[in-house]
Design goal:
two-stranded antiparallel ribbon; 11 helices; about 15% strand
Length: about 290
């Protein structure tokens, strides 16, 4: 009989994307392949998980799987859960249904070609599933995806659905939704347990949020990106910055500064503390056995 674990539980996931590829697409309008940055940092993550015999969830971009198939093969061989993060990091609120179908089917094909027999979950780039495009869940279901983990149950400026249930459940579209973690502090709802919400604040804030979630019967869903563990600061080619207008350059410089803060060794230390202090499971393990609808 399996003995219960003594540590509090969290789910651990990684959205495998390349920072430089994304900002060159979003800010410079350039289509470039993923860089070695995503390879090196994902290898570090996989090594740390393997050294602790921990299984997590990896949501791969299709173009990363195509360029660095060894990452998918290693994740599969190590027993991790494999999901999809889109093909070219297109935000779903910018796509119509047919475009999203093409995007997701292409990505799944590339991930499977790289070595994954099964792609079970989905995480939308920038959590870009909202009330206006819930048809995306139908597309995912029809593509063979078993669950989505993209919705923030909060009213955010860039993402979120304020009245979405906070617990994982089966939706009326035949797909499980495992929402991202949010906490209530002084009557306001805040996102937590991943990305910048871990990078920007001291580790005890993450621990505080985990305790609150556990007290409410919710397992924290943690998410990170490989570039957050990059030890080198964000560096753009000077010529790239000269070729965009001053307003866009200002926005890009702000983005680079924000993404540089708290990354590297500081973030590596936080991830290691999470892995050492909590019982780690995959996101898909949170799929409920009930058939309630959201």
């Amino acid at each position: 009989m399996t003995q219960p674990h003594s540590k509090p539980s969290i789910c651990l996931s990684f959205d495998v994307e390349c920072y430089y590829q994304i900002i060159r697409k979003d800010f410079l309008g350039l289509s470039t392949p993923p860089t070695v940055e995503v390879l090196e940092n994902t290898v570090w993550i996989l090594d740390e998980l393997r050294s602790r015999d921990i299984k997590a969830t990896f949501y791969f971009l299709g173009n990363v799987a195509e360029r660095f198939p060894e990452l998918v093969r290693t994740a599969v061989n190590d027993g991790h859960e494999i999901g999809v993060h889109g093909d070219n990091h297109e935000y779903i609120h910018n796509l119509n249904r047919n475009e999203f179908q093409t995007e997701i089917e292409s990505a799944i094909a590339k991930i499977k070609c790289a070595g994954a027999a099964k792609v079970s979950g989905h995480r939308a780039p920038a959590f870009s599933i909202n009330k206006s495009n819930l048809w995306a869940l139908d597309v995912l279901r029809d593509a063979g995806i078993e669950y989505d983990s993209s919705i923030m149950p909060m009213a955010g400026r860039r993402y979120g659905i304020a009245d979405w249930p906070k617990l994982p459940m089966m939706t009326d579209r035949g797909l499980y939704e495992i929402p991202l973690s949010v906490v209530n502090i002084f009557g306001r709802t805040f996102a937590c347990m991943g990305g910048g919400y871990v990078r920007y604040f001291p580790f005890y804030y993450t621990q505080y949020c985990a305790r609150q979630l556990h007290s409410e019967g919710r397992t924290p869903v943690c998410y990170f990106h490989p570039y957050e563990f990059e030890n080198k600061k964000v560096e753009m080619q000077p010529q790239e910055l000269l070729e965009i207008d001053p307003l866009m350059r200002k926005r890009l410089n702000k983005m680079n500064s924000m993404q540089s803060y708290g990354r590297g060794q500081a973030m590596r230390n936080k991830l290691c503390r999470l892995m050492d202090n909590y019982h780690i499971s995959t996101v898909g393990s949170l799929r409920p056995t009930n058939t309630g609808y959201a």
